[in-house]
Amino acid sequence: MYLHGTSKVNDQGHLEIGGVDATQLVAEYGTPLYVFDEALVRQRCREFVDAFRASGLKFQVAYASKAFCVMAMCRIVEEEGMSLDVVSDGELYTALQAGFPAERIHFHGNNKTVDEIEMAIDAQIGCFVVDNFIELQLLNAIAGDKRQKVKVLLRITPGVEAHTHEFISTGQTDSKFGFDLGNGSAMRAIKEAASLSNLDVLGVHSHIGSQIFEVEGFRIAAEKVAGFAVQVRKETGIIFPVINLGGGFGIRYVEGHTPLPVAVYVEAITEAIKENFGNNDYPLPEIWVEPGRSIVGDAGTTLYTVGTTKDIPGVRKYVAVDGGMTDNPRPALYEAEYEAMLANRATEQSEEVVSIAGKCCESGDMLIWDLNLPKVSVGDILAVSCTGAYNYAMASNYNRIRRPGVVFVKDGQSDLVVKRESFDNIIGNDLIPARMKQVSTTR
Ligand SMILES: Cc1ncc(COP(=O)(O)O)c(C=O)c1O
Ligand SMILES: N[C@@H](CCCC[NH3+])C(=O)O
């Protein structure tokens, strides 16, 4: 397993993250457990911020909180001076409760509800990224009722298909997101938005997909957005002070994944903006981006305990852990690949090829196929790397399995930032109708 950030094998032959022995974390918090290398999260934040600073352009790096949104994470993002992108009232609530400055929050989504819009306007968030014509009118009306003017970016689909899994690619024309550039919707949307008195149009937003390893898609998106901005200026006189190019920067999950250093992505984007706007005599806009996965992905490791094994001679050996698709649905959803190691026997040679099964009642609940490991025993601790993004965030209670806790580790210290769910959390919202026999249980 590739060791990211501060992860290393210590003198005891154990995996250590943030200066804390994984076996110690397991003893203290149990498994499954999400462990975040806080130093690596902060390093990634700084790589983005520093690279933008070096460009000389004005910028905002908005962490896409959908990747992993808990209050402690919002605190880190705030401390690192970044902005925050939310896509639901739940994410917004989390950020506000964590004391995140509202003016640095951007609200996304293709179906924001009236309640969500009201909540966000009341909180005085920094900007709405408007997705469609219905939202334009709704937002204008609600802002009017509240006698407020709200800042908006319009999300456009630039027609760029990034090389990524079909379900996580969003910039192409046939997408549920945004105003299409090719068919004229984007221009109509700008004109309509400009005519609505409670909206202040800052510019446009484009997001071409996720887990992207090349700069080409970003370059083309920047070029298309610039072309559109120039056209808008020609037809309406409107000049965009802000361009948002979304997120999507890839990370290394397994061998063969070849992400570029953050600075290379940022330089490609800022150069493309300078070139395409500057060459058209367009005032250089402020550049916003929304990295999610690339901020937290490789900083996360999930620790599991091996519970059972099943050897089918000549076919396969299954090793079952005490989590699975409930804490990491990505293999089942996207055939996502992961690397893993035995955290308690980190120096031992590989001796067998096994497949890691989850504990859900579902054949598709497999975490990793054909993994080389030392001879696995019941009770071993399996560490799966790169689980920081879209794992806790997409975890479920399928089979009424309790979601694991989350720990941040840094400089030899561990802090619980999300408690493991309790049985009370599991049945906390259940109600037994009065017409049914009531039970009294001691909880
Ligand atoms: C609009 C938008 N911004 C940002 C992101 C974050 O993407 P990533 O986690 O790939 O950086 C996403 C998700 O793909 C998104 O849909
Ligand atoms: N959930 C996806 C990424 C979605 C990106 C959000 N627009 C993943 O785990 O890879």
Automatic annotation (TrEMBL):
Active-site positions on this chain: C361
Pathway given in the UniProt record: Amino-acid biosynthesis; L-lysine biosynthesis via DAP pathway; L-lysine from DL-2,6-diaminopimelate: step 1/1
Residues annotated to bind substrate: R293, R330, Y334, E362, Y390
Catalyses which reaction(s): meso-2,6-diaminopimelate + H(+) = L-lysine + CO2
GO molecular function: diaminopimelate decarboxylase activity; pyridoxal phosphate binding
An annotated GO BP: lysine biosynthetic process via diaminopimelate
Residues holding pyridoxal 5'-phosphate: G248, E290, P291, G292, R293, Y390
Keywords noted in UniProt: Amino-acid biosynthesis, Decarboxylase, Lyase, Lysine biosynthesis, Pyridoxal phosphate
CC cofactor: pyridoxal 5'-phosphate
EC number in record: 4.1.1.20
Keyword Lyase (UniProt): yes
Modification N6-(pyridoxal phosphate)lysine occurs at: K66
InterPro entries hit by this protein: Ala_racemase/Decarboxylase_C, DAP_deCOOHase_LysA, De-COase2_N, Orn/DAP/Arg_de-COase, PLP-binding_barrel
Domain called Orn/DAP/Arg decarboxylase 2 N-terminal: residue spans: 40-296
Quaternary organization: Homodimer.
Cited HAMAP family: LysA
Record NCBIfam families: lysA
Function: Specifically catalyzes the decarboxylation of meso-diaminopimelate (meso-DAP) to L-lysine.
Family: Belongs to the Orn/Lys/Arg decarboxylase class-II family. LysA subfamily.
Protein name: Diaminopimelate decarboxylase
